[in-house]
């Protein structure tokens, strides 16, 4: 997975980081106060987003560090490349659901049992509908619907899923891994129109390949149910 794709996921996973990068992409540079004013965000949120983006080399300070006033920021080369990969078009319908409402309830049960304590959430993506199931209530409070749409759109429109594990239970497994600030996202391609995103803790100590194989095996053998329209 390229650095630019990981940076794109990092941008898309926060509405504040996304808004700041969108502003800098459109305007070339900006002062924190001006970014806040023009985006309608509170300045502390803008300042924090700029700090986080600087740590990831997505944004840079365009004036000397010692300059306390007129601190102008702009996107780095990595920031420009990453923002271009952020999906501009958001998903259609997205629903945050309970495990019993997920399209494949067996998948939620199997992954929760196998990776208890390390599994953060599961996302089932189809062309016109996406279902998100968090495994902990506190995680659902970290993401609003628009942020989830931006993140899921970016990752599912990302690099081709071309990692071949060499023969899983239903044929070759194709998956790709994205690194965010506090999680790994494993994208498994189930068929030409369906993607599965599985979020696990950053320190995930199990086999990613086995996780991807389990996802495809259960998803393709268990019935699709519990859909939310």
TrEMBL record:
Transmembrane segments: none annotated. It comes from the Archaea. It holds the Pfam family DUF7522. SUPFAM superfamilies: Winged helix' DNA-binding domain. This is Winged helix-turn-helix domain-containing protein. It comes from Haloferax namakaokahaiae.
